[in-house]
Amino acid sequence: MNGTVGLAALTVEGRKTSASRAVLVTTVLLVVGIALLAGSLTWAAARGNERVLAQLGPLAGEAGWDRLMGVVAQVTAAASLLGFGTVLSWMFGREFTEGTISGLFALPVSRPAVAAAKLAVYLLWALGVAALLTALLGAVGTALRLGAVDAGVTGALARQFTLTALSALLALPAAWAATLGRGLLPGIATTVGILVVAQVVAVAGTGAWFPFTAPALWALHPAGVSPAQLALVGLVPVVFVPAVLLTWHRLQLDR
Fold first, then answer.
1. What is the pLDDT of residues 37-59, one digit of tens each?
2. Averaged over 157-181, what is the pLDDT?
3. Stretch 175-182: mean pLDDT, rounded?
4. The dihedral formed by the CA atoms of 158, 192, 31 and 60, expressed in degrees to the nearest 10
5. What's the CA gap between 254 and 23, in Å, rounded?
6. Is 213 within a domain?
7. pLDDT of residue 2
8. How many angstroms separate the CA atoms of 76 and 71, rounded?
9. pLDDT at 120
10. Contacts with 106 (C-beta within 8 Å, 6 or more apart), sequence order
11. How confident is the model at residue 89 (pLDDT cuts 50, 70, 90)?
12. If exposure means fewest CB atoms within 10 Å of the residue's CB, which of 42, 74, 122, 219 is most exposed?
């Protein structure tokens, strides 16, 4: 595949994604929804709402930016993985459900190149979501007058950006599942399954060594997760990006 063809594939996939109502709604829910939810809980907790304080658990003892960023990390860990998995399921599964997959066989672009373009557009979108969410959280914290934005706050915001970006990588199995299952539902089901397993592992106390749990634990307690444990997240794209490309290379229309 030459550069011109590859750029064309990126352009086409970029247009599909930017025109998608599903992607737009997911973007709003992830950025505005998470920020508003975390901000509302922080605001209510600061005013002594007993129900909210009971729901926050250990975070009820925190204050200011520490409480906000702790709440955000917990919400982001689940919501972003589900949102990213849903978008990936749409990007890959829609070709089958809408019957457009057959047209891809007639294009001068190889099917793995199309899949690679989808992944590239997805990752660029996810980084944009991470940046927008982080910026909005900074604005929410400032509006709530949680205190000065010092080095500690900047570090927490940086961890939030990283958590969101890593969550995008953790959702990659959804693309593979949507391709194998030839539809949106297998990808979404896989994402939900990952969330359930991650919760079980976290409760068991071994989450730091589990790639799908480590980023959230690191965002909440940086000292509790080593660089080696966090680096295990890299295994997910290392395994599933080639798996997606290989599956698209072997696609056939006889099913």
1. 999 999 988 888 888 888 887 87
2. 97
3. 96
4. -60
5. 30
6. yes
7. 57
8. 9
9. 97
10. none
11. very high
12. 74
Query: How is residue 22 written in tokens?
Result: 């599903």
Give the total number of structural domains in the chain.
1
- The answer to whether residue 131 sits within a structural domain is yes
Does residue 223 lie in a domain region?
yes
- Provide the token pair at 141: 């914290």
12's CB contacts (< 8 A; 6+ apart) are 117
Measured between alpha carbons, how far is 156 from 146 in angstroms, rounded to an integer? 14
Average model confidence (pLDDT) across the chain = 91
Quote the CA–CA distance of 232 and 157 in Å, as a whole number. Answer: 22
What is the C-alpha to C-alpha distance for residues 43 and 17, in angstroms, rounded to an integer? 35
pLDDT value at 202 more than 60: yes
Q: Collapsing DSSP states into helix, strand and coil, what is residue 183?
A: coil
Q: Which amino acid appears at position 26 of this protein?
A: T
Sign, CA dihedral 166-10-23-200, equals negative
| Structure tokens given for 181 | 């299952």
Q: Which domain holds residue 235?
A: 3-249
pLDDT band at 114 (very low <50, low <70, confident <90, very high): very high
Residue 148 has pLDDT above 90, yes or no: no
**Rounded to whole angstroms, how far apart are CA atoms 128 and 117?**
17
- Structure-block tokens of residue 126: 């996810």
DSSP assignment string, 84-132: HHHHHHHHHHHHHHTT-HHHHTTSSS-HHHHHHHHHHHHHHHHHHHHHH
Q: What is the CA radius of gyration of the chain?
A: 20
Nearest CA-CA partner of 230 in 249, 217, 243 = 217
Q: Do 171 and 88 touch, CB atoms closer than 8 A?
A: yes
3-state DSSP helix/strand/coil % of the chain, to nearest 5: 85, 0, 15
